[in-house]
Amino acid sequence: MTRVLDLRPATPADAAGIGPCHLACWQETYAGLLSPAFFAGRSPERFAANWAQLLADPATAPVTVASADGEVVGFAQVVPSRDTPPVREEELVSLYLRAAHHGSGLGQALLDAVLDDRPASLWVAEQNARARRFYERNGFSADGAREVDESWEGLAQVRLVR
């Protein structure tokens, strides 16, 4: 079966697809790191509503979506650094891809679309070895910064820079 893959800028109409994709990516990515209770109160509809609000705001930094056969399977976004003081001008705040598409090249295509080879920072779950290897292959390395997010059940994140 030939799949039609697409990478393009998100529009407000994409919120209905990005929302469920976002939650599913969280569930796949953080399943071994966060409890089922963490996800229990979250719904695809609420995620879609949040994305609708975000994408309707003209001040929102561009979001790129990846789709397969018309279904949103990933997304990525770069914003001005949120770190104080900033270690890089830009920060990759999201790059999520459904697990079924890992290794397909879509993750790399998303990263290239939103950041190319520019310097940037990002935060990644300390125990997310797959994501850390991906970013390391793309020139990122840990700079020693680490945060523990209590609202995420004490999940530790490390900052990567290039």
From TrEMBL:
| Single annotated GO MF | acyltransferase activity, transferring groups other than amino-acyl groups
> What Gene3D superfamilies does the record point to?
3.40.630.30
The N-acetyltransferase domain sits at 5-162
- State the UniProt keywords alphabetically: Acyltransferase, Transferase
Which domain of life does the UniProt lineage start with?
Bacteria
InterPro entries listed in its UniProt record: Acyl_CoA_acyltransferase, Bact_Acetyltransf, GNAT_dom
This protein's record includes keyword Metal-binding: no
One Pfam family of this chain = Acetyltransf_1
Q: What is this protein called?
A: GNAT family N-acetyltransferase
- Organism of origin: Modestobacter muralis
